[in-house]
Design brief:
This is YesN/AraC family two-component response regulator. It comes from Paenibacillus rhizosphaerae. The protein is α+β, with helices and mostly antiparallel strands. It has one domain. The protein contains 2 helices and 2 strands; from the N terminus they run βαβα. The protein has a two-stranded parallel sheet. The longest helix has 10 residues, at 12-21. It is flat, with a radius of gyration of 10 Å. The relative contact order is 0.33.
């Protein structure tokens, strides 16, 4: 069972880097979404 993670960052390059550079599946996580701020992440 994978934990779900929501990536949130206001810098598009940092957000893309978080998703691409970290092997989330190997760590037991599934990226379920991306957002550019906290408000967007809660919607």
């Amino acid at each position: 069972m994978a934990f779900k993670v929501l990536l949130i960052d206001d810098e598009p390059a940092a957000l893309e880097g978080l998703e691409l550079w970290i092997d989330w599946e190997e760590l037991g996580f599934e990226v379920c979404g991306r957002a550019s701020n906290g408000k967007e992440g809660c919607i």
